[in-house]
Amino acid sequence: MLKTSRSRFHAASMLTSKERVSLIVSLVLSIFLISASIVQLASIFDLTDAQNKKLSVLSIVAAIGVLVQTVFDFSLGRSILATKLHDNALSVTRLLRELERILIEMPFDRIKASELADKYEEMNIITSANHSSLDFYLSSRPESSFGPLANFILGLWKMFVKILLIILSSFFGVATSVFILIGVLGL
């Protein structure tokens, strides 16, 4: 139960982080679209026709990026899944505390333990969402028999994997932003 709870809290946290990164990418692309439109309309910079065409192409790419990112985020339903997993993790934690109380009681009550196990299974079925095996791995505590340095390195590795997963979840938007940045610098 403890591993399930940790994994689901972790999964909910990762989904929320992915959604935030996606929102930031969409905001950056939207700000670029607005800025490009203002630059072209107000003639702030004396742009040549070729530069105007490049800026228009970059604006189209940004608009496509925002559209794809928005549709992708909506289809994944990250916030709903994150809420389900977080709520389930809270419920599992509550059941875990109840299990601790049952285990402390003397004599051990097998009927209460069985009822608790049934509640746990029912709760997981009702949630209708699950964490991934990667969430399970990343939420596990770094433990190594090689000492504290190895534990520290393993913790850093897990943090790197989490950051990489968050960035890759918004790959199209990030790639679009980089493409536009290169295009703007090339104007």
Walkthrough of the structure:
This protein has 187 residues and is an all-alpha fold. Helix content is 85%, strand content 0%. The chain contains seven helices and no strands. It has helices at 2-42, 49-76, 78-104, 110-127, 133-139, 148-169, 171-186. It starts with a helix and ends with a helix. The model has no long low-confidence stretch (mean pLDDT 81).
Task: Explain briefly what this protein structure is.
The protein has 187 residues and is mostly helical.
Helix and strand succession?
A: HHHHHHH
Q: What sort of overall outline do the alpha carbons produce when their principal axes are compared?
A: elongated
Largest sheet: none
The protein's oligomeric status is single chain
The number of distinct helices, counting runs of at least 4 residues, comes to 7
Structural class: mainly alpha
What level of helicity do the residues show? over 70%
Low-confidence stretches: none
N-end to C-end Cα span: 57 Å
Mean pLDDT: 81
